[in-house]
Write a structure and sequence with these properties.
Number of helices: 8
Largest sheet: 5 strands, parallel
Helix content: 25-40%
């Protein structure tokens, strides 16, 4: 059985017009050249239905209700609960992750946060015990994530922790779930012209081999 690379894209633009998706595709293609034992599953968050979480879906915080309780919900809500389970199980089944997203409002587009809310589940991806810090449950094997982020300008390193909320949040939540390696592949300075965008893409592509070589698969 092949290992799974889960590719999560969050940009409504077609790939040819999206800098983050263009670089992510190049990364995936190069990764597969070196790791033939992987197959790719793609999730486009602008095409995939991502449920919005409602209180009746949970036993308690981040713990989806059990099957018997779900059957008491309306048919529509049962479908939403099942979709949440499927998204979470699909995430757990992968060992390599690539997320492609633009930097929006110092963060990322809203569908990515809605998706993350679905996959952060007690007793599936995290363990929450009273009086203890949350423990990631995805550390049972080596997992890695590469976050491909495009932005129109460039943030000086000293401002990065303050201004780049998207990168910082993704790194924090993924490590909380137990993913060992979280790296960012920035597509900076895409600018206002096609020439500037292509230059930014090419500079990002030059970093791909180094990132792949650093992974421990």
């Amino acid at each position: 059985m092949k290992k799974k690379l889960l590719y999560i894209s969050v940009n409504s633009k077609p790939e040819t017009l999206s800098s983050s998706k263009t670089v992510a595709r190049e990364f995936i293609n190069k990764f597969l050249e070196k790791h033939e034992d992987f197959e790719v599953k793609e999730v486009d968050l602008y095409k995939e239905h991502i449920p919005r979480l409602k209180y009746q879906y949970f036993e308690d915080r981040n713990c989806i209700i059990k099957e018997d309780a779900a059957k008491q919900l309306s048919e529509e809500d049962q479908k939403e609960v099942q979709k949440i389970r499927e998204l979470c199980d699909e995430f757990i089944s992968a060992t390599m992750y690539v997320i492609a997203a633009p930097m929006w409002s110092l963060s990322f587009p809203a569908p990515l946060k809605e998706y993350i809310d679905c996959i952060v589940q007690t007793n599936k991806t995290i363990l929450i015990e009273k009086g203890k810090k949350p423990k990631g449950m995805l550390d049972n094997e080596y997992r890695a994530l590469v976050y491909v982020q495009s932005s129109g300008g460039h943030l000086p390193w000293i401002l990065d922790p303050v201004m780049d909320k998207g990168e910082n949040y993704i790194a924090s939540i993924m490590k909380t779930m137990g993913i060992a390696s979280v790296q960012e592949l920035k597509v900076d300075n895409t600018g206002t012209t096609e020439e500037e965008r292509l230059e930014a893409i090419n500079q990002a592509k030059e970093k791909i081999d180094g990132i792949i070589d650093s992974l421990q698969f």
